[in-house]
């Protein structure tokens, strides 16, 4: 994370600004603490990754899903590739391209300011490159959050392998129910997978809407496998295996959207995946 991006952060409890005290390397946070202006509480930064979560928040179905990622970080991409085929979505690269197009970043190529994308459940960072490709020439800044430190380290390795990415990508431990950001700082907020694992979906989606610009969009992608949908038995078995930690049906969470959400759209991204897009309520 860039030192000059710290003003975008907020204490996930008090919502007050945070100040960094520690070391940096060429403007990138290394080790230290982020201190809340209001409470004085310090949040650790270790090897460049801020930890803006509490152990007390690591409970429920979303924490269980993150724990699964922690056990097999090297298998996350192979599992995604195989499950995409079994769910009838085709090659996972094609599915990721559809997700990137669903962000509709193209029109933002003309804005003369940084374009900020926040991705929850960032995994190994596999959506970053197709996302960048959707807005050529734009200064797209990608922020990735997860409850899994192993997934974040895998994403960090991907970022390090790509020239120019370290200055454009920020990774941090954060909980979707307690986002550590100021209001309305992101043009797009993306969550792919684990939407059905949110322990309190209405709370989390309200947070996703809070940090999104009023003219931006929140984009949710996950499995859509319900008893009334016509999907193959193999896809149904795969979805059940992938959703062992889920807390809600594998369907678009329309009933959990923030009251006053605008321009709500649902697309079938594949036979077994939905894409739900909405604009946050006006403040």
**Range of helix content:** 25-40%
Helical/strand content category: alpha/beta
Mean pLDDT: 95
Question: Any idea what the radius of gyration is?
Answer: 18 Å
Relevant CATH superfamily of the largest domain: Vaccinia Virus protein VP39
Describe this structure in words.
The chain has 283 residues and is α/β, with parallel strands linked by helices. Helix content is 26%, strand content 27%. The protein has helices at 60-71, 76-86, 92-102, 128-133, 149-161, 201-210, 233-242, and strands at 18-25, 28-36, 42-46, 49-50, 115-120, 140-146, 169-173, 186-192, 212-223, 262-270, 273-279. Strand 2 and strand 3 (42-46) form a beta hairpin. The radius of gyration is 18 Å and the shape is globular. The mean pLDDT is 95.
Task: Write a brief caption for the model.
The chain has 283 residues and is α/β, with parallel strands linked by helices. It has 7 helices and 11 strands.
Task: Give short descriptive properties of this protein.
4-stranded antiparallel β-sheet; 283 residues; alpha/beta
Task: Summarize the SSE layout with pairings.
Blueprint: E1 18-25, E2 28-36, E3 42-46, E4 49-50, H1 60-71, H2 76-86, H3 92-102, E5 115-120, H4 128-133, E6 140-146, H5 149-161, E7 169-173, E8 186-192, H6 201-210, E9 212-223, H7 233-242, E10 262-270, E11 273-279
Parallel strand pairs: 5-6, 5-8, 6-7, 8-9
Antiparallel strand pairs: 1-2, 2-3, 3-4, 9-11, 10-11
